[in-house]
What we know:
Layout: E1 3-7, E2 12-16, E3 24-25, H1 30-49, H2 57-65, H3 72-87, H4 89-108, H5 113-130, H6 151-161, H7 175-179, H8 181-199, H9 202-205, H10 209-216, H11 223-236, H12 240-257, H13 262-282, H14 299-308, E4 319-320
Antiparallel strand pairs: 1-2, 3-4
Amino acid sequence: xxxxxxxxxxxxxxxxxxxxxxxxxxxxxxxxxxxxxxxxxxxxxxxxxxxxxxxxxxxxxxxxxxxxxxxxxxxxxxxxxxxxxxxxxxxxxxxxxxxxxxxxxxxxxxxxxxxxxxxxxxxxxxxxxxxxxxxxxxxxxxxxxxxxxxxxxxxxxxxxxxxxxxxxxxxxxxxxxxxxxxxxxxxxxxxxxxxxxxxxxxxxxxxxxxxxxxxxxxxxxxxxxxxxxxxxxxxxxxxxxxxxxxxxxxxxxxxxxxxxxxxxxxxxxxxxxxxxxxxxxxxxxxxxxxxxxxxxxxxxxxxxxxxxxxxxxxxxxxxxxxxxxxxxxxxxxx
Length: 334
């Protein structure tokens, strides 16, 4: 038999006459790619949690430190958790690391993606309270430069926006598929406007506020990264108010940009990506990963992933190719 070309309405396929059926036509699943990106970050978190530093007293001191400045109803459970971990450090830290690895694997594996995304939301909320002190939003220490409103709560937001369900066959961007465009835009605006607010809090407006945040992350970094951070710290030294205002204006533009039409929206998303990368490198020191004491990569990569979920395009749900209309009655048989 010879191969025969058959033309459909919008597709074409080649097969051996009488032996094959039209293939299912699937648009590239950008949401699935973003889910895999989220899975990769959870896997990285799990690997980081297995580091030797996480099995030392410094880890429990870090947990307990998040209680400082928080109201009692927040600080009390954090202190209880830190004491519990201190007494069962090896066991509980291994459990924490394993949970995060399982979340990453579950999101990467299609049959378990829903269960893993749901579990990741619950785990993220728990860690946000007990492991991050609500990202410092109630003690005055929150800043977009140090990861406010807490990197882990962004995991939960992304999981909700990437939930594998479709409210409509067409959506202007991936984040709108599960919750709808209006709700997705509102969630984006709330996050980025909150970052703008945190940029202008008194601690961040102080003359050395921004400089202090950058300098606090320099210790233990490799020489090239430490040099970059020293340069950034020197640039903003004494300029806390001006730096905070410039950053807040950029964050407001990003927040409102999601309501703008195509080209302006893309510009706002590109600005979000650039700002996130700059913060991640110069203020968050790549999340502290290279210093050997990080439990996660901080907020920078998550904000980039979130911005990609809002990139404007229309994608239809997968459809099956219609029966071919060929205009020929029979193929040529050798």
